[in-house]
Design a protein that fits this description.
Collagenase (Catalytic Domain), 7 helices, four-stranded mixed beta sheet, three-stranded antiparallel beta sheet, globular, alpha/beta, about 180 residues
C-alpha cells in the first residue's frame, strides 16, 4: 500500500505521482507480497534536499516505510503535467528503490547510523563526498532515469509494466521509437 501525505496537488497531479510510485514498486516486488509493505510518501516543501527514505518497523508482519519528497522543484511554469512533476517523480523513483533495498533485506540501518548493505557494514558518515560512494545511493541514482523512461514508455502506450514485458519483450528496441 502506498499513501501520500503533506502538500496537496490537484487530482491529476496526485494520480500521476501515485502511478509512478506504484510502477516503481511493481518493478521490484510482486503484487502478492506488496500487501505486507506500507509506504507513506510525505510531500513536503522542505528545501535543501530532494528526498529521504526510512524503514520505520514491522507491525503484525507489515513492513512500514516513510519517505519524504520535496516539492520545491516542481516546474510551476510547465504546461504539461509530466514536465511539471518530473523532478518529484524522479525523487519518488529514487526513494522507492531504497524501499526495495530495505524490503528485500538488501539494506539495514543500525541505531548508531551505520548501514549494512549486501552483507557489508558501512560506518555512519555525514561526509558529502562519501555519500556518493555508498552502493545503495549508486543503485538508486543509477536506476532512476531508466525507471523513469520505462514509466513514460508504458504510460504513452497505455500499458502496465506486466503488459509491457509480455507484449514488448520480443520487439526490437530500434522499432519502438
Amino acid at each position: 500500500m502506498i499513501r501520500f501525505t503533506g502538500v496537496k496537488f490537484d487530482k491529476s497531479e496526485m494520480k500521476l505521482l501515485k502511478e509512478v510510485a506504484q510502477f516503481t514498486l511493481d518493478k521490484f516486488i510482486p503484487r502478492s507480497k506488496q500487501k505486507n509493505i506500507h509506504v507513506t510518501i510525505n510531500l513536503t516543501e522542505s528545501p535543501g534536499w530532494s528526498g529521504e527514505c526510512e524503514y520505520v518497523g514491522n507491525e503484525d508482519g507489515v513492513r512500514k516505510f516513510k519517505t519524504m519528497v520535496s516539492t520545491k522543484r516542481v516546474n510551476t511554469r510547465a504546461k504539461k503535467l509530466l514536465v511539471k512533476l518530473k523532478d518529484p517523480m524522479k525523487t519518488i523513483i529514487h526513494e522507492m528503490v531504497h524501499v526495495k533495498q530495505y524490503a528485500t533485506n538488501q539494506m539495514f540501518d543500525y541505531i548508531n547510523g551505520d548501514t549494512k548493505f549486501e552483507g557489508k557494514l558501512y560506518k555512519n558518515t555525514r561526509n558529502y563526498l562519501e555519500y556518493w560512494d555508498h552502493p545503495w545511493e549508486q543503485e538508486a541514482y543509477g536506476r532512476t532515469d531508466g525507471i523513469y523512461e520505462q514509466f513514460l514508455f508504458c504510460r504513452k502506450h497505455g500499458l502496465s509494466l506486466k503488459e509491457a514485458k509480455r507484449k514488448i519483450g520480443k520487439i526490437n528496441i530500434k522499432d519502438l521509437n
